[in-house]
Amino acid sequence: MTPTLVRHRPRTASAAESSAEACARARDWAEIQERMLVPLYEAVYERLEVGAGTRLLGLGCGSGLALVIAANRGAHVTGFDTDRTRLELALERMAPEGAATAAPQLYDGDLPAPGEPGPGPYNLITAFQPIGCSAGDAEGLKAALAAAVAHSERGSAVVLTGWGPPERCAASGVLRVAGRLTERLHSSSRWRPALRDDLENVAAGAGLRPDGSGRVACPFGYADLDSAVRGLLSTGLYDEAVQETDREQVEKEIAEALHPHRRRDGTVWMPNVFRYLIARTP
Question: What is the number of alpha carbons within 13 Å of residue 120 lying toward its C-beta?
Fold first, then answer.
């Protein structure tokens, strides 16, 4: 069945980023970076026994790899994201020749607010974009969670994900580059180490009941230095640094920070641990 892409309150793209730049970055995310989190997706789906009875809502679904994996397990999937370029790539991935068993719905924009008509009801909500590496990076998730919970069944599982302890995440040192470049600007989104209760605090703020957690190894592996720089830039974690300095400077500093993680064959390898929290809707 053919997937659909629905426009719902789309966010206006930044004027600082051209259409060509947006497409290139979205492609880098889909082809280089997104796969790094596959062990996290698989661990969560295995633990929750995602399958034919699952009606999944993916918040910040991006280019849709996590949705594809869930659909291949038999789940009916719906994704929301404010990045239309990534959603168009998700649409390509979930075309009829793919393995999805039910027609997915992809929404360009924000979720309908509580009380407004919307899709659903869902029995699983996922937020696979990890939080916990910059101050305030969970703020945008709060409103999305409130809307998602309003369109889900009572007792539905909600999965929140975050970075593990800095000492377990080799990428932490590379992420600090963004912090160094914006710290002098007193940016509210500067890098900070992940805190033990980041996910629990978000769950509590959304009125969710914790129901288990886990840690998953998600190493970042790249074919070469150029791929590593492009993949990391595609995460969006360096956007403010690029805007306040310039892309060339940011690329140079990322490359320097990656030097300790380069292997003799030119590949780049950074072991990381990510954490997930399973909570339940009231």
Answer: 25
Cβ atoms 230, 28 nearer than 8 A: yes
Instruction: Report how far residue 251's alpha carbon sits from residue 229's, in angstroms, rounded to the nearest whole number.
Output: 6
Give the model's pLDDT for residue 25.
94
- Of 67-81, 88-102, 116-130, 232-246, the range with the highest mean pLDDT is 67-81
Task: Name the DSSP letter for residue 110.
Answer: P
Q: Would the pTM of this model clear 0.85, i.e. be above it?
A: yes
> Environment class of residue 244 by beta-carbon count within 10 Å: exposed (0-12), middle (13-18) or buried (19+)?
middle
The end-to-end CA distance of the chain, in Å, is 33
User: What are the C-alpha distances in Å from 42 to residues 31, 223, 228, 276, 280?
Assistant: 18, 23, 23, 12, 20
Read off the pLDDT band of 182 (50, 70, 90): low
CA atoms of 100 and 69, how far apart (whole Å): 9
- To the nearest whole number, what is the mean pLDDT of the chain? 87
pLDDT digits (tens, 9 = 90+) for 123-139: 999 999 998 776 677 78
Report the alpha-carbon distance of residue 159 to residue 143 in Å, rounded.
15
Interatomic CA distance for residues 144 and 59, integer angstroms: 7
Burial of 110 (0-12, 13-18, 19+ CB in 10 A): middle
**What is the spatial distance between Cα 82 and Cα 12, in angstroms, rounded to a whole number?**
9
